[in-house]
C-alpha cells in the first residue's frame, strides 16, 4: 500500500483528497491544525488507512521537523501533497507583522522544508516518487490579497525549480485552482472577486473540492509519470493562457 502525506487534510480540498486517496488504495498520513476535523476523519475511515497528526505549519519548529518525525515510523513514503494554506482576503495595508510571518510560513516555507526533507530521504531509494503543490490562479494573475498572491506565485516558482532539483526520481507538479466552492476560503473572497472569477469562466459547473482532488491524485499517480515541473489549472477555462 503506497503512503501519501496530505497537509491541510481536515477540510476542503485536503479532506476531499484524503477521501479519494483512501478510496484509491493509499495509506494516508494527514496533517492539519484542526484536531477535531482530523480525528473525525480518522473515526470515519479507521487508523488502518489514515494516520493523523495535529500540526500547525505556521510554527517554524513544526515545519522544519515534521518530515523527520514521520520517518521515525515510516521507512518510505510515496508522495507528498502540499495543500495547507492561508487566505485572508484583505489588503496588504491591513496585514500585521505576525500575519505576514504566518502566511509566509504556511503558504511557502512549509513547502520548502517539507519538500526538501521528503525528497532527500526518498531519492535514496532511486524509485519514482511524487510531490504535488497546491498553487492558485492568484499566483498567476494576481490577487486582492497581495500576500496570498505573492506566496502562491512563489509556489509556482518553487515547483518548477524543485522539478529540476529532485530529478530524476521525485516528480514535482502543481495544481492551480481558481474559484472553488464549499471551502473556507470561498466565503472569505470579496464578492467582487468572486463575481470576476465567475464572469471569466467558460465552463459553468461550479468547481468543488472533489474535482480538484481528482486532478491532484492524477498528477501524483503513475498515469502522469512522464510529467514534472508543470502547473495544471483547475479553473473552468478562466484566464485562458
How would you sum up this structure, described in words?
It is a single chain. The protein has a seven-stranded parallel sheet, sandwiched between helices. The chain has 241 residues and is an alpha/beta fold. It has helices at 12-23, 35-45, 60-70, 97-122, 138-141, 146-165, 191-200, 209-220, and strands at 3-7, 27-32, 50-54, 79-82, 129-134, 170-177, 231-234.
Summarize the structure.
The chain is α/β, with parallel strands linked by helices and 241 residues long. The chain has helices at 12-23, 35-45, 60-70, 97-122, 138-141, 146-165, 191-200, 209-220; strands spanning 3-7, 27-32, 50-54, 79-82, 129-134, 170-177, 231-234.
- Report the β-strand fraction as a percent range: 15-25%
Strand order in the sheet with the most strands: 3-2-1-4-5-6-7
| Intertermini distance | 38 Å
Alpha-beta content class: alpha/beta
Backbone CA Rg: 17 Å
Shape, principal axes of CA atoms: globular
Number of strands: 7
**Main sheet record:** 7 strands, parallel
Report the mean per-residue pLDDT as an integer: 95
Q: How many alpha or pi helices?
A: 8
Residue stretches low in confidence (pLDDT < 50, at least 5 long) are none
Series of H and E elements? EHEHEHEHEHHEHHE
Helix content: 40-55%
GO molecular function, one term: oxidoreductase activity, acting on the CH-OH group of donors, NAD or NADP as acceptor
Pfam families: adh_short_C2
Family: Belongs to the short-chain dehydrogenases/reductases (SDR) family.
Protein name: SDR family oxidoreductase
